[in-house]
C-alpha cells in the first residue's frame, strides 16, 4: 500500500525549511496572479475574472497529500492547488484568462472555459487513455454550484471498485484502488442538494473521498447564516460523524485557513483516513478571507462592514504565514535555527511579482500573436478589393481605428467585404474567399470541435452486426433478451458494471437484470439509494477513470433529477476540454407509454435540447436496446438508452449472437415499405404507428413506416429524405408534447435533408397533448396519439387533395 503523508514526514530541518519557503513562494506567486489577473480584467484585456486569493494555504496543504493517480473534482478557485501539483503555470493561467484557443498554451480548456476552471489532460491526441496513475488528475471544472459533487462520488468509488476489478489495461487507471478523490466546494454551495446527496452516498458507500469546504462566511453577498439551518457546517454535519465500530459515516475535521501547521496536520489526518481506511472525510476550512471579493463583477465593500474588512486584512493567510515564518525558531544541538528573516521573504515577494509579470507578458504576447497573424493574413486581401466597392475602404478605416482587435473583428471585416462584392468574379475576391474558408475551418475547430468523440472509437464508427436467428431461436419475453444480453456483456467486459435503484438484488423492477448480481457480485451489479443525481455522478466519475458504467435511472420521468448533471457536466466533458477528457457513461432508463402522470412521460425534447454531447438512442423493442448496449460498449461516446417500458412482457425472438450484434447509431430502419406517405416515429409509439398503417391500407393509403431508432445522431445517411422523395408526404408521430421531439425531427428532415422539395402536402406532426398523461389505459388514449388519431389525421391529408376518393370522415 502507498504510504501517506504522516508516514513520510521524517525530514531534516533544512528540508523542512526549504519546504516552507517553497510553499511561501508558491503562495505569493498565486496571490500575485490574482492581483494582476484582476487588473487585466479591469483594464479591458480580459472579460471576467474569478480568483483564488485567500485560499492559498489550505490548498498548499491539500496538495501535499495529493498523489499520482488521485483525482480532484473541484471549485473554480483552486489555482494555488493546481500550481502546486504542476497542473497550472503562470502562463497557462493568463492564457485561460485571455481565452487563448491553443491547447498547448491553455491545456485545461483551450480557451473554452472562463478562468479558474482547471483540468488535466487524461487523453492522448488520438483519444486513447494516458496512464492516469503516472500523473495527478483534475477532472474538468464546471461553474454550477455543487455541480462537481456527484462526479466526485464516482471518482472515489472507482478506487473501491478497482480493489476487486481488474481487466486488460486497468493498470493505467488504478494501483490496487489506492487513490483518493478530492473535492472542493465553497461553503455557501453546501446549501445545494447535490452536496448533501453526494456526502450521504459517500458515507453509505464508504469511499476514499476528501471534501474541502472553503468557508469565507458568504455566498457572494449573502452571509452563511442565511444559507443553511446552521451557520457552522461542521455542527450541521455532526450526525454524519462515524461511530467507532460502524462502517458508515465520515470523519469531520475543522481547521483555520490561516493556520499553516494546523492545515498540514488536518490534511495529513484526512489522507490517512481516506487512503488507509477508505473513509470519506470532510475538511471544513474556516476563517477564509477573500481579499479581492467574489469576482471582478463587483466589490465586497458593498456588503462587508469595516470591522469585517479589517479582520480580513489582519487574518489574510499570506500575512499570517509570513508572521509564522518570521516568529519560528527552534534550538537544534544548542543552536537557534530560524526559517527566514524579513529580507529573505521580501526577496521572495519581489521575485514572485517578477515571475508573474513575466508569465503574464508572455501569455499576452502569444495570445496577441494569433490575432495579429490572422489580421496580417486577411487584411491585405481585403485591401485588394478596395477598387471593387467604395464601401470597403470605409470598412478598413473603421477596422484600423479599433483600439483593441479580436478575431471576431477580423472576421467581421472579411465578411463585410465579401458581402459588398457579392456577384463579382475576380481573382482578388476568389483569393479572399479561399483564405476565409481556410481560417474559418481553423476557428471552427477552435470553438466547435469535440462535442462528440472524434476518436476511432466514436459511436458512428461501430460497424453493424445483425442479429442471427436460427430454427432453434426462441420466442421469449423482451426482458429475457436484454437480461441474457447483459449476461454476455458482463462476461465479455469485466470493466462493465451497472447500478441503480433495485438494479441488484431483485434484478431491476422489470427483471432485465434478473440473476446478474448473484452471478457477478454486488460490486458489478449494485443497488443504490433513491438519489438519481448521484447515480449519474457515479457513472461520470467511474467513466473518467476507465470503467464502463451503466447508470440506471429507473424511469425516464425521473431522469429530470439528472438533467443538470447531464447538461452541465456529462454532455460538455469532451467539448469543454477540447478532447482532453471523456466519460463514456451509458445511462439506462425506460419509459414512454405505461400508466399515469409520473411513469409515462416523454421529456425527450428537454433531453435533446439540454444534452447535446450525449447520444440519445430510442429503441422500439428490447432486442434493439440490447444491440445499442453492445454498440456503445465499443464506443467512447456517452449515451442515454431509453428502453420501452411496455415491452418487457411482449414476445421477441431471441438472437443467437447475444452480446455480439450491434445496432448502428444514426441509422433509420424502414419497417414497412409504402408509396403514399412517409410516417416517421420511434420507441413505443412505433407499435401504434404500425397498427395505424394497417388501418390506412384498408382505406387505400399505402404508408411507409420509418423507425428513426437514434435521435442523436439523426439519420446520418438522409434516408428519410429519399422516402419523402418517393411518397411526397411526411408525417412525424411522437408522444412528446407539441413542438417537442416532433419539431426536432421535422427540422432535421426539412431543413438539413432538404426534403421540403419533395412535398405535395404540408408536413404534419402528430404529438401528445400538452399535459402529462392521465392515469390508466383511457388516460393514455386521450392524452397521447392513438391509432385512431393517426388514421384520421393522416387520412385528412388525402381528403384535402382528393376529396372524391377520400371523403371526409367528420
Automatic annotation (TrEMBL):
E1 component of the 2-oxoglutarate dehydrogenase (OGDH) complex which catalyzes the decarboxylation of 2-oxoglutarate, the first step in the conversion of 2-oxoglutarate to succinyl-CoA and CO(2). InterPro entries: DH_E1 (IPR001017), THDP-binding (IPR029061), Transketo_C/PFOR_II (IPR009014), Transketolase-like_Pyr-bd (IPR005475), Transketolase_C (IPR033248). Its cofactor is thiamine diphosphate. It comes from the Bacteria. One of its GO terms (molecular function) is oxidoreductase activity, acting on the aldehyde or oxo group of donors, disulfide as acceptor. Residues 476-650 form the Transketolase-like pyrimidine-binding domain. The keyword Oxidoreductase applies. Keywords: Oxidoreductase, Thiamine pyrophosphate. This is Transketolase.
Amino acid at each position: 500500500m502507498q504510504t501517506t503523508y504522516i508516514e513520510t514526514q521524517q525530514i531534516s530541518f533544512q528540508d523542512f525549511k526549504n519546504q516552507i519557503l517553497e510553499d511561501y513562494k508558491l503562495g505569493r506567486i498565486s496571490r500575485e496572479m490574482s492581483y494582476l489577473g484582476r487588473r487585466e480584467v479591469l483594464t479591458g484585456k480580459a472579460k471576467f475574472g474569478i480568483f483564488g486569493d485567500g485560499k492559498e494555504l489550505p490548498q498548499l496543504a491539500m496538495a501535499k497529500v495529493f498523489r499520482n493517480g488521485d483525482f480532484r473534482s473541484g471549485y473554480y478557485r483552486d489555482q494555488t492547488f493546481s500550481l502546486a501539483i504542476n497542473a497550472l503555470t503562470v502562463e497557462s493561467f493568463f492564457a485561460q484568462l485571455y481565452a487563448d484557443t491553443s491547447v498547448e498554451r491553455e491545456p485545461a480548456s483551450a480557451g473554452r472555459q472562463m478562468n479558474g476552471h482547471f483540468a488535466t489532460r487524461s487523453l492522448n491526441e488520438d483519444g486513447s487513455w494516458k496512464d492516469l496513475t503516472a500523473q495527478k488528475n483534475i477532472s474538468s471544472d464546471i461553474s454550477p454550484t455543487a455541480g462537481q459533487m456527484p462526479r466526485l462520488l464516482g471518482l472515489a468509488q472507482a478506487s473501491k471498485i478497482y480493489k476487486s476489478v481488474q481487466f486488460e489495461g486497468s493498470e493505467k487507471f488504478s494501483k490496487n484502488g489506492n487513490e483518493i478523490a478530492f473535492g472542493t466546494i465553497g461553503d455557501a454551495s453546501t446549501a445545494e442538494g447535490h452536496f448533501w446527496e453526494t456526502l450521504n452516498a459517500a458515507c453509505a458507500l464508504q469511499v476514499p473521498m476528501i471534501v474541502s469546504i472553503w468557508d469565507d462566511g458568504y455566498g457572494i453577498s449573502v452571509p452563511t447564516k442565511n444559507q443553511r439551518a446552521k451557520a457552522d457546517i461542521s455542527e450541521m454535519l455532526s450526525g454524519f460523524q462515524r461511530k467507532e465500530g460502524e462502517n458508515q459515516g465520515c470523519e469531520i475535521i475543522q481547521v483555520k485557513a490561516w493556520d499553516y501547521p494546523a492545515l498540514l496536520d488536518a490534511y495529513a489526518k484526512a489522507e490517512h483516513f481516506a487512503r488507509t481506511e477508505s473513509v470519506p472525510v470532510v475538511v471544513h476550512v474556516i476563517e477564509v478571507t477573500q481579499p479581492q471579493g467574489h469576482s471582478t463583477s463587483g466589490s465586497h465593500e458593498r456588503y462587508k462592514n469595516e470591522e469585517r474588512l479589517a479582520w480580513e486584512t489582519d487574518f489574510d493567510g499570506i500575512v499570517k504565514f509570513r508572521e509564522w515564518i518570521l516568529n519560528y525558531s527552534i534550538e537544534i544541538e544548542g543552536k537557534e535555527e530560524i526559517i527566514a528573516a524579513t529580507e529573505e521573504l521580501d526577496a521572495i515577494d519581489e521575485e514572485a511579482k517578477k515571475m508573474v509579470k513575466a508569465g503574464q507578458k508572455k501569455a499576452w504576447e502569444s495570445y496577441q500573436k494569433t490575432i495579429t497573424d490572422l489580421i496580417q493574413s486577411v487584411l491585405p486581401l481585403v485591401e485588394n478589393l478596395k477598387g471593387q466597392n467604395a464601401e470597403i475602404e470605409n470598412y478598413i478605416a473603421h477596422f484600423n481605428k479599433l483600439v483593441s482587435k479580436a478575431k471576431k473583428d477580423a472576421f467581421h471585416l472579411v465578411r463585410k467585404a465579401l458581402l459588398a462584392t457579392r456577384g463579382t468574379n475576380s481573382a482578388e475576391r476568389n483569393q479572399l474567399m479561399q483564405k476565409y474558408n481556410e481560417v474559418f475551418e481553423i476557428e471552427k475547430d477552435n470553438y466547435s470541435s469535440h462535442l462528440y468523440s472524434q476518436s476511432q472509437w466514436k459511436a458512428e464508427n461501430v460497424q453493424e452486426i445483425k442479429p442471427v436467428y436460427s430454427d432453434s431461436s426462441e420466442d421469449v419475453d423482451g426482458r429475457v433478451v436484454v437480461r441474457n444480453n447483459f449476461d454476455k456483456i458482463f462476461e465479455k467486459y469485466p470493466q462493465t458494471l451497472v447500478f441503480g435503484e433495485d438494479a441488484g438484488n431483485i434484478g431491476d423492477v422489470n427483471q432485465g437484470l434478473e440473476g446478474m448480481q448473484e452471478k457477478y457480485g454486488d460490486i458489478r451489479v449494485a443497488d443504490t439509494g433513491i438519489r438519481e443525481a448521484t447515480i449519474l455522478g457515479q457513472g461520470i466519475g467511474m467513466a473518467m477513470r476507465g470503467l464502463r458504467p451503466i447508470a440506471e435511472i429507473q424511469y425516464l420521468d425521473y431522469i429530470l433529477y439528472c438533467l443538470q448533471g447531464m447538461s452541465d457536466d456529462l454532455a460538455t466533458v469532451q467539448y469543454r476540454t477540447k478532447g482532453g477528457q471523456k466519460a463514456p457513461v451509458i445511462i439506462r432508463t425506460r419509459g414512454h407509454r405505461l400508466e399515469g402522470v409520473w411513469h409515462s412521460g416523454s421529456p425527450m425534447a428537454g433531453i435533446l435540447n439540454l444534452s447535446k454531447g450525449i447520444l440519445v438512442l430510442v429503441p422500439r423493442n428490447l432486442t434493439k436496446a440490447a444491440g445499442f448496449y453492445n454498440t456503445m460498449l465499443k464506443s467512447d461516446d456517452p449515451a442515454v438508452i431509453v428502453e420501452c417500458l411496455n415491452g418487457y412482457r411482449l414476445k421477441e425472438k431471441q438472437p443467437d449472437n447475444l452480446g455480439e450484434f450491434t445496432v448502428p447509431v444514426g441509422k433509420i430502419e424502414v419497417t414497412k415499405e409504402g408509396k403514399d406517405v412517409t410516417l416517421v416515429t420511434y420507441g413505443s409509439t412505433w407499435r401504434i404507428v404500425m397498427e395505424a398503417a394497417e388501418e390506412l391500407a384498408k382505406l387505400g393509403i399505402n404508408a411507409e413506416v420509418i423507425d428513426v431508432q437514434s435521435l442523436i445522431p439523426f439519420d446520418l445517411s438522409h434516408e428519410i429524405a429519399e422516402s419523402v422523395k418517393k411518397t411526397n408526404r411526411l408525417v412525424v408521430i411522437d408522444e412528446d408534447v407539441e413542438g417537442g421531439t416532433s419539431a426536432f425531427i421535422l427540422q432535421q428532415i426539412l431543413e438539413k435533408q432538404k426534403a421540403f422539395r419533395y412535398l405535395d402536402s404540408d408536413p404534419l406532426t402528430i404529438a401528445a397533448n400538452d399535459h402529462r398523461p392521465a392515469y390508466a389505459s383511457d388516460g393514455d388514449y386521450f392524452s397521447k396519439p392513438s391509432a385512431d388519431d393517426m388514421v384520421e389525421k393522416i387520412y385528412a391529408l388525402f381528403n384535402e387533395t382528393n376529396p372524391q376518393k377520400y371523403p371526409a370522415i367528420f
